[in-house]
Amino acid sequence: MRKQVFIEALVVAALGLFFALAANGLSPRGLRLSRNYFPEPGMAPAAASSVRTSPSATGTTATTAAALPNRTTERLQQRGLQLVTSNQVVELFRDPRREQGLVVFIDARDDQHYAAGHIPGAWQFHHYHAEKYLPTVLPICLTALQVVVYCSGGECEDSEFAAIMLRDTGVPREALFVYPGGMNEWKANGLPVEAGARGSGEAPKPNP
Amino acid sequence: MTTDAPVPLPRRAPVPDLAVVLARWLLGALFIYMGTNKALHPVEFLKLVRQYDLFHDPFFLNCVASMLPWFEIFCGLLLLLGVAVRGTAVMVVAMLVPFTVVVLLHARALQVTGGLPFCAIKFDCGCGAGEVFICRKLAENILLTVVASALIFWRRHRFCLRIGLWKTPLTTIGHEPTRMDAGIS
């Protein structure tokens, strides 16, 4: 009997794996098994020797990278990414070149979070479903002088992986910046937020 | 000398049998619920699996994150319907035990980092129910493992479409289980 149950368990396992494989393949939200969703610095071009802050084109007197948690700055450094601080991101947001598409904001969060509220005019690029967003976002990033990528902030790493993917697909590393404070910091600073689709001008719904 | 005629088992009180049915349905429903929560948000689950730092190869990480939720749903459905109950229960135990160990180890690491009392550790373990306190999670998992183990060893399963995959006929309420139904050879 024990052997019978054991064999039955193996059959259940085999059928279950087949079911799971098929379901993942058919699901529009399914993951691609062969893709690396978390590219690490080894695969990226030579990492910068130090974390650089935004170019002084904006004339910002920003807080330094040292103000950010060490872990975040170290991680960015390892991944060869540049960061922008809270003050710098505000300067970039108010930069008139943003209206001309030369300064671009990229929201690396999923549909639900993007629709709930994003930096006005930001393009969505949820890199886990790059095939959906990249055809739109890549040409915009390639023509921009400065691309600021953000996600929720805190422990969120999606902005970094999205930036690495943009870099790997041809966006110049000098143009790419990660805003580690993310949407949480942006909202906490009382800066404008747009809900719904890009350019909708909708105000986010107040929290219950 | 053996006979082909099924030999009826002695009658037992139906209450334990019904309790086992209820436990099986609850376990199945829970697995479907937890699996669905993860299958609907595979990216979130992928990030949660990554936090355990178990797989360094993206392929294996993706396999676990994409297939585990659907596998749980599959097992949940089998338990609800009463198909291959014992084999499915073995698989459920085979999932629960390593989950519990991994969650425990991660909680220990968080405890060391944060310097908090063990039971004050709260995090999203990727179990499909959001953030939970570790002690509660461990208690839940132990209970579920006990229930699944009971399903493996319990001999009279009722309301099952097909208890075993091989030779067991339909067993429903009102059907008197035989030694063959009960898997006794």
Order of helices and strands of chain B: HHHHEEH
By secondary-structure content and strand pairing, the structural class of chain B works out as mainly alpha
- Fraction in beta strands of chain A: 5-15%
The total of beta strands of chain A comes to 5
Largest sheet of chain A: 5 strands, parallel
User: What is the molecular shape of chain B?
Assistant: globular
Parts with pLDDT < 50 across at least 5 consecutive residues of chain A: 42-67
CATH superfamily of the domain at 65-188 in chain A: Rhodanese-like domain
Strand content of chain B: under 5%
Task: Provide the helix percentage of chain B.
Answer: 55-70%
How far do the termini of chain B sit from each other? 14 Å
Distance between the termini of chain A: 57 Å
Share of helical residues of chain A: 25-40%
**Main β sheet profile of chain B:** 2 strands, antiparallel
Structural classification of chain A: alpha/beta
Roughly how many Å is the radius of gyration of chain B?
19 Å
**The first-level CATH class name of the domain at 65-188 in chain A:** Alpha Beta
Q: What is the CATH third-level topology name of the domain at 65-188 in chain A?
A: Oxidized Rhodanese, domain 1
Give the arrangement of secondary structure elements.
The complex is a heterodimer of chains A (208) and B (185).
Chain A: H1 2-26, H2 70-78, E1 82-83, H3 86-94, E2 103-107, H4 111-116, E3 123-124, H5 130-143, E4 146-150, H6 158-168, E5 176-179, H7 182-188
Chain B: H1 14-40, H2 42-51, H3 58-81, H4 85-114, E1 122-124, E2 131-133, H5 134-153
Antiparallel strand pairs in B: 1-2
Helix pairs in contact in B: 1-3, 1-5, 2-3, 3-4, 4-5
